[in-house]
Amino acid sequence: MKKIGILASHNGSGFENIKKACNNGTLNADVVCIITNNSNAGVLEKAKEYDVPSFVINSKIYPNINLDEKIAKQFLQYNCDYIFCSGYMKMISIDLLKYFENKIVNTHPALLPSIYGGKGMYGRFVHEAVIKNKEKQSGVTIHFVNEVYDDGEIILTKSLDLDENETVESLESRIKNLESKAIIEAFEKLLK
Fold first, then answer.
1. Domain map of the chain by residue range?
2. 162-165 contact pairs (CB < 8 A, 24+)
3. DSSP state letter for 53
4. Taking Cα atoms as reference points, which of 141, 84, 145, 89 lies closest to residue 114?
C-alpha cells in the first residue's frame, strides 16, 4: 500500500477527498501524515478527526533552519511515496524536490499550460481572470511540482464549459467539484 503525505496551508479539502477515497478502498493508499506551515490551519482539526499525525513547520517555530529540508525529513520518516499539495501556499524548493522528484502532486484551478498559471495565479484570482477574459472553457490541472510555479509535468486535466452568465463564485464552486474528482482520478492513475 502506497503512503501519501499532505502539505497544506489552510483547510486541506483535497486531503479529505484523498483520505475518504483511501478509507473506502477507491485508492490503494493511506494518508500517513500532514504538514502545514500555518499553526491555525483548518487541516489540523481534520487531521485529528481522521487520526492522522500532523506537524506545523514554519520559521516561527524553527528559525534559522532550512524548512524544506525539515519537511523532507518528516515525510521520509513516514516513508511517503507521494506528497499532495492541498492548498499549500509556499514555493517548494529544490531541497524538498531532490528527495521527491516527480512525487509531489499539485492541483491548479485552470487548464495548464496557460496564462492562468504562475506566481499569483491561485484560487479566486484565476477565476476572476478567466471570467474577465471571457473564456469559453476552464478546468483543473493535476501536475507534478518542479521548481517553477505550475510548470511540472501534467498528470491529467479536466475541463468544463463556462455558462453565459458565469460568475466568479459559480465558476469557483464548479471547479472545486471538478477538482475533487480529478484529484482521485490522478492518484488512481499514479497508483497503478
1. 1-101, 108-179
2. 162/130, 162/131, 162/135, 162/136, 162/137, 162/138
3. -
4. 141
Q: What is the topology classification, in CATH, of domain 1-101? A: Rossmann fold (3.40.50)
Domains 1-101 and 108-179 share a fold: yes
Is 143 tagged catalytic?
no
Nine cell digits for residue 24: 473506502
Q: Which of these is catalytic: 10, 108, 127, 143?
A: 108
Q: Which CATH class is domain 108-179?
A: alpha beta
Residue 18 is inside which H or E element, if any? helix 13-23
Average pLDDT per 10 consecutive residues for the chain, totaling 192 residues? 97 95 97 97 97 97 96 98 95 94 96 93 94 96 94 96 95 96 98 92
Q: What is the pTM of this model?
A: 0.95
Dihedral sign for Cα atoms in the order 32, 190, 88, 46: negative
